[in-house]
Design a protein that fits this description.
CATH class of the largest domain: Mainly Alpha
Number of helices: 7
Radius of gyration: 32 Å
Number of domains: 2
Shape: rod-shaped
Number of strands: 0
Strand content: under 5%
Largest sheet: none
CATH topology of the largest domain: Rna Polymerase Sigma Factor, Chain: A
Length: 174
């Protein structure tokens, strides 16, 4: 490529970069588009039949590079959307999240008669009937213990984590 041709294109740089920014490209994307277009111009100059139309040809190259950037963005957004969808599907396939680590820590600090029923019912997913039988108490007594344990847990969550309920604790980091 001749030096005058490079100078011609370089003179257009500020104007083209401004147009690229107006089209919604970031400054780094605009610089990348301009530089890759410049490389294409240098590589293809010998095949250009009419050097007087270099500016128009270069603008077409820039336009095509911009389209490539927008296509890549769309692909990235699609990929991001697919990842979010997969995460939601994966989350739905897992057993329901019940408690985060800080809640598990708080449960372990409960009295034995409150902790054990909570762990067996919510972590081990046993039925209240089975847990009552294992502990040698009636279901009503078990339900009272679970109720008291949940109340105590709520109080501790609010005190330690600033949360109002166990459901709020799914993503806590206290």
């Amino acid at each position: 490529m001749q030096v005058t041709t490079v100078a011609q294109i370089t003179q257009l740089k500020d104007q083209i970069l401004g147009q690229l920014l107006k089209k919604g490209l970031t400054s780094s994307e605009a610089e990348d588009v301009f530089q890759s277009s410049m490389v294409k111009a240098i590589e293809s100059f010998d095949s250009i039949k009419n050097p007087e139309k270099l500016e128009n040809w270069f603008r077409v190259v820039v336009k095509n590079k911009v389209q490539d950037v927008f296509r890549a963005r769309a692909k990235d957004k699609k990929t991001e959307k697919e990842l979010l969808t997969e995460a939601k599907i994966h989350e739905a396939e897992q057993p329901e999240k019940l408690l985060c680590q800080c809640v598990k820590g708080l449960v372990s600090q409960l009295k034995e008669d409150q902790r054990k029923p909570l762990e067996e019912i919510f972590f081990e997913e046993k039925s209240t009937k089975q847990v009552a039988k294992d502990l040698g108490v009636t279901e009503n007594v078990l339900k009272v213990r679970v109720h008291r344990a949940k109340k105590k847990l709520r109080e501790e969550l609010e005190k330690n984590c600033g949360l109002k309920s166990v459901q709020d604790a799914e993503d806590c980091e206290c």
